[in-house]
Amino acid sequence: VRRGGDFQVWSCARDGQSRQVFQKELLSTLAEHVGELYPNATRELEILDMCLLPNFENQDAFLVLSSFPNGPNETFYLLFTIRKEEDQLLIVSAYKLNTYTTPYSDKPKLYVPAPGTTGFIVFDNSVVLSELVSKLDHTSSLKKKWEDIITFRSNIRFIGSGAEDQTTNNGVISRLASLYLIAGQTGVLRVDHLNTLEGEIAE
Predict the structure, then answer these.
(1) Which residues have C-beta within 8 Å of that of residue 128, sequence separation ≥ 6?
(2) How far is it, in rounded angstroms, from Cα 179 to Cα 15?
(3) Which of 120, 141, 175, 182 could form a disulfide with 93 if both were Cys (CB 3.0 to 4.6 A apart)?
(4) pLDDT, tens digit, 9 for 90 and up, residues 31-58
């Protein structure tokens, strides 16, 4: 996604040759989708980050983090699930984060480690975990999603972050999908989402 909101797909060959195979205006599509409910989004919606959804192989599904100001001291953050289908972009669902509305200083970062059931959003000194869609149809937008937040002390700032996919060994989860944070003067922090319904976890 380019700064102006263009969604592009490029085909890259091993010999270094590349060509653009798809382009659509994404920002206006997202703003129009939520404009009736959030009029401010029509004018001020901003795309912050985007991730490929790993649980939909060969379906070109993406998660888009966006925001718009709701007054001088509040910002709304929206997660859009979109799907590329032939020559168009389809919006599967749009979800507003409920646990975090603080305007950001550093641009938030979005991570979706496999199996792709949880999104991790890194803010200035907070991390929001949100349930993601399990199906690429419009019934997903009707399902109530869980969401949680971890808030750190105001003097803690993240200087780096990354994600790690869940791994299994003989059907047993040996490593959870995780977020890693590098915090100044603190060290490396790890954030997991533990869901015992997804499978047995090795001790």
Answers:
(1) 97, 99, 100, 120, 121, 147, 148, 149
(2) 34
(3) 141
(4) 999 999 999 999 999 999 999 999 888 8
Identity of the amino acid at 168: T
Q: Report pLDDT digits (tens) over 134-174.
A: 888 876 665 678 999 999 988 888 999 999 999 988 888 88
Q: Is 29 helix (H, G, I), strand (E, B) or coil?
A: helix
Structure tokens at 19: 């060509």
Q: What pLDDT shows up at residue 21? A: 62
The answer to whether 59 touches 136, Cβ cutoff 8 Å, is yes
Candidates 51, 54, 102; CA nearest to 80 is 51
Closest alpha carbon to 118 in 181, 11, 194, 61: 194
Q: For the full predicted model, state whether its pTM sits above 0.90.
A: no
CA distance 83 to 61: 4
- Encoded tokens for 54: 């790993």
Structure tokens at 60: 């070109």
Q: How far apart are CA 95 and CA 141, in angstroms?
A: 8
| d(C-alpha 112, C-alpha 89), whole Å | 20
